[in-house]
Write a structure and sequence with these properties.
Elements (H helix, E strand, L loop, with lengths): L2 H7 L3 E5 L5 H26 L4 H13 L2 H26 L7 H19 L5 H30 L3 H22 L30 H20 L1 H11 L1 H6 L4 H28 L10 H11 L4 H24 L4 H23 E5 H7 L1
Antiparallel strand pairs: 1-2
Helix pairs in contact: 2-14, 3-13, 4-8, 4-9, 4-11, 4-12, 4-13, 5-6, 5-7, 5-11, 6-7, 6-11, 8-9, 9-11, 12-13, 13-14
Length: about 375
């Protein structure tokens, strides 16, 4: 075979995994990816609508920060999404693909609503809050422990198992929503204890969502400390990196799996408690609002770092609020706003490839040689 034929078959480039990348370079790549996404969105906007792209972006900002009510709504949604992201992070860091956060949040909300409806006017306020919080955490933790036990005992596929349990949780909530519906048979519970507000989280300084935000902020710090400075966090990391290594150093993989999923489910229960008691004051099958799936993206983009998840949660909620405002102002359907959101998220996810890998061109290697 001639030298010319050999060179013709050589690839023009190949992909090499980076050993490490300075933190500011990784964030520069992410920022550049967002800017590139905005350029692409501008082109799409002009081609499909003829609207001024700058006006569209101003509308997005106004949709998130236009009024005080919108700002507090933004922070509330960020806190709820962050709470679910904190819940799935320990499991994902352990390489246990918990796709069932949606259902676990619903079970927590169901337990909270049950306590509010059945005991709202029968026990003191503090006792009621304790029952609601403990009930939601225990219920969701046990719900999450079911697939964890089957994975630890029989090595079942946790992705399908947790996904299927979402549908069971949805039907359970639908059933009790019908049982507790007001008026009877309407299929809707309505506002729970609207006359007495028993079981409603109190407003702080006149801000009804502030307590939710404070609770999630505390959980974020605790989760960061737990994952990075505790023995349990170390065991989660070891199991996630190599189960063989974990066995070699004496870590019980079954125990870590079940314990971690109990924690993950309990935090989903907290999210359900906050949504029912602090935000919606009712229960529907759409209580989680897709947060269980969006939280996976939040956790993954932040590299399972709870502090970085604050930024990724804010970004995704901002895009959602902004896209909704675009549809309203310009009279466009939801599909257009979802296109813009999808493009930006696609570029953000794509940037992680260039953070982890570099592209080496053949002529560069020759010059280096």
């Amino acid at each position: 075979m001639s030298k010319k034929q050999t060179q013709a078959r050589e690839p023009m480039f190949h992909i090499v995994k980076r050993s490490s990348l300075v933190w500011w370079k990784s964030w520069l790549i992410r920022i550049l990816s967002v800017l590139a996404a905005l350029v692409v969105c501008s082109i799409i906007t002009v081609l499909l609508t003829g609207e001024n792209p700058l006006g569209v972006y101003v509308t997005m900002i106004d949709g998130a920060f236009g009024t005080k009510r919108r700002i507090w709504g933004l922070f509330q949604n960020v806190a709820m999404l962050l709470c679910v992201a904190l819940a799935v992070t320990p499991a994902f860091k352990m390489r246990f693909w918990n796709i069932g956060a949606e259902g676990q949040v619903l079970i927590g909300g169901l337990a909270t609503a049950a306590c509010m409806i059945l005991f709202g006017n029968k026990v003191p306020t503090l006792v009621l809050f304790a029952m609601m919080l403990v009930g939601s955490m225990v219920g969701s933790a046990l719900w999450a422990a079911i697939p964890a036990y089957f994975r630890a005992k029989w090595n079942t596929n946790e992705t399908l198992f947790t996904l299927m349990m979402n549908y069971i949780a949805i039907q359970l909530v639908s059933y009790f929503t019908y049982i507790w519906s007001v008026p009877k048979g309407s299929g809707q519970i309505g506002i729970i204890n609207g006359d007495t507000r028993m079981g409603w989280l109190p407003a702080i300084a006149g801000k009804p969502y502030l307590l939710n935000i404070i609770i999630v902020a505390v959980l974020t710090v605790l989760m960061y400390v737990y994952l990075n400075y505790s023995k349990h966090g170390y065991e989660i990391q070891v199991v996630g990196e190599s189960e063989n290594t974990a066995r070699y150093i004496g870590v019980s993989i079954k125990k870590v799996i079940i314990r971690t999923m109990l924690l993950s489910g309990a935090l989903c229960g907290v999210a359900g408690f906050l949504l029912v008691s602090g935000t919606d004051h009712t229960l529907t099958r759409n209580l989680a609002g897709g947060r269980g799936f969006t939280a996976i993206m939040v956790s993954w983009l932040a590299k399972f770092n709870p502090l970085y998840m604050v930024l990724t949660s804010f970004l995704l909620v901002f895009l959602q609020k902004g896209a909704t405002e675009i549809s309203t102002v310009y009279g466009l359907n939801d599909s257009f706003s979802e296109i813009l959101t999808g493009v930006i998220i696609f570029f953000i996810i794509g940037s992680e490839f260039f953070v982890s890998y570099s592209v080496k061109f053949r002529h560069n290697e020759k010059e280096g040689a």
